[in-house]
Amino acid sequence: MTGSGDTDATVALTDRGFAYGDGLFETVLVRDGVPLLWDEHCARLAQGAHRLGFEPPAKGWLDALPAKAPRGKCVLKIVLTRGSGGRGYRPPLPAEPRCYWQFTSFTPMPERWERGVSVRLCQLRLARQPALAGLKHLNRLENVLARQEWQDDAIAEGLLLNDRDQLVEATAMNLAWFDQGQWWTPELIECGVEGTLRRALIDQGHLSIARASDAPLSRFLNAPSTCLFNSVQGLWPIVRCLDAQHQHVHGQWPIDDSVRRLQGDAHALLGYPSNFPIF
Predict the structure, then answer these.
(1) pLDDT tens digits for range 6-29
(2) Which GO terms describe its biological process (predicted)?
């Protein structure tokens, strides 16, 4: 394993991560040198490397990275590639992975925690590829194209469906809806990124997984409350969903007790506040 970070992170043109998106990345919230959901991030990185067919960094090597962080809140971005070598798409055997990292200052958006956000439906449909489902791999062109669909800062996120019009995720966050007394989030066995906050909430029993066939857009839009979340931004209640042209409102939701309870569970894992009013 070779690695470089912050000031010396030069990427070779021959690096397969740069050339083909042949690699993975993690974005980790770090507070005063302490990484949040660190075990989940390391586990996802290791699982992704094994599924792509090369060795992940040693856990001890990764554990040394957060201690390099500046004081206060920041985001540690880790990029793991297969390295260089091979002929064309044929990967080298054995691979010599490279790991790059960088710290970026970060300020969350408490107004979105408190007042909720508006979202839109994206026109782009996610392709189904079970071999890559759940991984935070480097090829994120679908997300880039989806995010390119709008420039209105009043729209916080875009919702993504697959080619069967089943709900999957947002462009940079996971999502959930409240129904039949519990919170549901779509299964991610064909596409989508399994977020680390999503994994922690499932493991703690706060979220249930809905099969793709049970996650049509209509179920989400008809739910009494909905939300978005990830391991950096925390949980945003959704208050309105617009169509792709921002002309028709598909759904509106109050910020109720069920959202605030899930927000409290999520924010407890990230060290964020959760004592917001109910509108």
Answers:
(1) 656 688 899 999 999 999 999 999
(2) 4-aminobenzoate biosynthetic process; folic acid biosynthetic process
Continuous segment of H or E residues that includes residue 160: strand 155-162
Entry pTM: 0.95
Q: How far apart are CA 178 and CA 208, in angstroms?
A: 10
> CA 27, CA 106: separation in Å to the nearest integer?
11
Same-domain status, 118 and 255: yes
| Dist CA 227 CA 188 (whole Å) | 17
Which residues lie across from 73 on neighbouring strands?
31
What is d(CA 197, CA 49) in angstroms, rounded to the nearest whole number?
Answer: 20
Whether residue 190 contacts residue 133, with contact meaning beta carbons closer than 8 Å, is answered with: yes
Q: Give the integer Cα–Cα distance in Å for 26 and 162.
A: 24
Q: Please tell me the distance from the alpha carbon of residue 102 to that of residue 122, in angstroms, as a whole number.
A: 30
- Residue 260, classed as helix, strand or coil, is helix
Tell me, what's the pLDDT at 1?
63
C-alpha–C-alpha distance, residues 188 and 186, integer Å: 6
**61-96 pLDDT per residue, tens:** 999 999 999 999 999 999 999 999 998 999 999 999
Q: What is the CATH number of the domain that holds 101?
A: 3.30.470.10
pLDDT band with cut points at 50, 70 and 90 for residue 4 = low
pLDDT at residue 7, as a whole number: 55
DSSP 91-154: PPSS---EEEEEEEE----HHHHHH-EEEEEEEEEEPP-TTTTB--BS--HHHHHHHTT---TT
> Which single residue is written with the structure tokens 């939701």?
253
One domain, residues 52 and 168: no
Q: What backbone torsions phi and psi does residue 208 show, to the nearest 5 degrees?
A: -115, 150
Identify the bridge partners of residue 105 per DSSP, sorted by sequence position. 74
- Could you report the per-residue pLDDT of 200-214, keeping only the tens digit for each? 999 999 999 999 888
